[in-house]
Specification:
Layout (H helix, E strand, L loop, with lengths): L8 E5 L18 E4 H6 L6 H10 L4 H6 L5 E3 L2 E3 L11 E4 L2 E6 L12 H12 L5 E4 L6 E6 L6 H14 L15 E2 L7 E2 L30 H15 L11 H11 L4 H11 L13 H10 L1
Antiparallel strand pairs: 1-2, 1-3, 3-9, 4-5, 6-8, 7-8, 7-10
Helix pairs in contact: 6-7, 7-8, 7-9
Amino acid sequence: MADIFTGAICTFYKDIISRPVKKQPTLTYAGKNVKILDLLTNERYTNGVLLNSLRNSGYKSDYYLSKKQYLSAACFSSVQDDLTIDRSENNHLFHTGFLTFDIDTDGNPSLLQAGMCDEMKDFIIDNIPYIAYLGKSVSNLGLWGLIPISNKDDHYGHYAAVIRMFDSYGIVLDKKTFDPTRLRFLSYDPDAHFELNPKIFEDTYTEENTTTSTISEYERPNVTDDLFIAACKWIEAKHEIKFEKGSIHNYLLYLYGTLRHCHVPRYKILNWIYNNLIDESQITTNCLDEVQIRRYRSAV
């Protein structure tokens, strides 16, 4: 029986620095079309030595930012026409049927917390049936994945609906992956999740018109800022304190515990706290960790 990856190919570039441009069409590393499943499961397509070096250098360090561009890359949503020139929207030949999404620390600061990347990965796998692939990104802090779509001619409508779907779970997608011809740096993940026969994503969304039978499920009652604000005000009134941006105190742990008691997912609580109550410079891998929370709970 055929699976979702059967016959699926995309355009791969071994080294995007050496990737040819229009004025130099004869350079060594032209693009080539490769089976998508091979790119995801075969480590030889990834520059493993450089990848490990980048991860050890520290996310967004000078070395990381300058050397990341030497990794191999692929257009997972696009097969390019002329493989001797640079990839572009104008050079797009046909859509692969897969939509790429990216979850990074810029929109989801809870990923900076130790263990949160794996926890979010498990949550996505358990709650979103459209995932064909989900693995670690180059930084090893974020996630990226593939979703099969029903209409290859409506990539942007599907992507807008995918954004809304993830938003309903409190997960922010990197909007730059909206472009179907965008390159994705390869980061082989031996522990990646594969689903060979996922549910096909059919929903589309535009500001003018929603053409879907199920978009309402993304608009169901969900955790909103109102719940977080109400919890903050309840704690402030009860303990005569004030939550202010950049002020770290034990009542953050009280807030965390209160929201967990309301069955709010851990990553969603941390994202809200990190976005609204803690400055980015104060976030560490041990910030609001489970050991700290258990100690606080035993003391109150």
